[in-house]
Amino acid sequence: MDLLPWLTIGFIITGLVILISMKKGMESKLAFIKANTEDKESPKKAKSIIWWIVSATAWGLVSMLLIVLSFHHHFG
């Protein structure tokens, strides 16, 4: 039994669920930053938004790599 396709599907679904669940919090942090540009918490919230974007990008890249590897392994 080949584990790579199941690992790929599990990674993609888990990451998608986590990103969607965190989306609302990031939207509220962004709204807070827009409303309170001079607040002392704004840089901290901005940093967390930036890390969320970086992690979403990394998740997307790893997902694409796993998909390519799955197809390469299946058809190669």
Structural descriptors:
elongated; 76 residues; 2 helices; single chain; mainly alpha
Structure report:
This protein has 76 residues and is an all-alpha fold. The protein has one domain (4-75). It contains 2 helices and no strands. It has helices spanning 4-35, 42-75. Helix 1 (4-35) packs antiparallel against helix 2. It is elongated, with a radius of gyration of 17 Å.
End-to-end CA span: 17 Å
What is the radius of gyration computed over CA atoms, rounded to a whole number of angstroms?
A: 17 Å
Structural class comes to mainly alpha
Query: How would you sum up the global shape?
Result: elongated
Biggest beta sheet summary: none
Number of helices: 2
Question: How many runs of DSSP E, i.e. beta strands?
Answer: 0
What number of structural domains do the residues give? Answer: 1
Short description:
The protein is mainly alpha-helical. It has helices at residues 4-35, 42-75.
Write the layout of secondary structure elements.
Layout: H1 4-35, H2 42-75
